TrEMBL record:
<feature type="transmembrane region" description="Helical">
    <location>
        <begin position="76"/>
        <end position="96"/>
    </location>
</feature>
<feature type="transmembrane region" description="Helical">
    <location>
        <begin position="108"/>
        <end position="134"/>
    </location>
</feature>
<keyword id="KW-0812">Transmembrane</keyword>
<keyword id="KW-1133">Transmembrane helix</keyword>
<feature type="transmembrane region" description="Helical">
    <location>
        <begin position="36"/>
        <end position="56"/>
    </location>
</feature>
<keyword id="KW-0472">Membrane</keyword>
<feature type="transmembrane region" description="Helical">
    <location>
        <begin position="6"/>
        <end position="24"/>
    </location>
</feature>
<dbReference type="InterPro" id="IPR025461">
    <property type="entry name" value="ABA4-like"/>
</dbReference>
<dbReference type="Pfam" id="PF14108">
    <property type="entry name" value="ABA4-like"/>
</dbReference>
<protein>
    <recommendedName>
        <fullName>DUF4281 domain-containing protein</fullName>
    </recommendedName>
</protein>
Length: 144
């Protein structure tokens, strides 16, 4: 399969996970669909892309120029994108479950989820700030 065909598949799959996390976080299947089934499919896609693009470019991780060359191939570029999709969705799933565990109202974390979807680490930072503010009053800080 070509990267051009797989790109929308990966995006729709991740979007389904985000929709579940944002709109139905307490549905009993959200955890299994978003946190397991979708992550498994994305992981399989990632492994396929990595194997099928291995050695196609002379890129690497030793310098910015090597990383640039690494992503000159469409399948390598898509593998990098899928890597982002997978980890951001994993972080979103973790945020939802951590917030539920610590009784943080879901409406408070939606901005952090949206920011995690758009810019992973910035969304996690926002969640931590929300969490710290919510727990400051309760004095029940538990990082994990």
């Amino acid at each position: 399969m070509t990267a051009k065909l797989l790109f929308p598949f990966a995006n729709y799959l991740a979007m389904l996970g985000w929709i579940l996390l944002i709109f139905v976080p307490k549905w009993k299947l959200t955890k299994y669909i978003s946190g397991f089934a979708i992550m498994l499919m994305i992981a399989v896609l990632y492994v396929y892309l990595m194997i099928s693009s291995w050695g196609v470019t002379d890129g690497g991780f030793g310098s910015l120029e090597e990383v640039r060359r690494l992503f000159e191939n469409d399948k390598s570029l898509l593998a990098g994108w899928v890597h982002y999709l997978a980890f951001d969705l994993f972080l979103g799933t973790w945020i939802v479950h951590h917030a539920q565990k610590h009784s943080i109202h879901h409406l408070l974390i939606i901005p952090a989820l949206i920011l995690t979807f758009m810019a992973g680490p910035a969304g996690v930072l926002l969640y931590w700030l929300i969490y710290l503010a919510a727990k400051k009053k309760q004095k029940e800080l538990s990082l994990f």
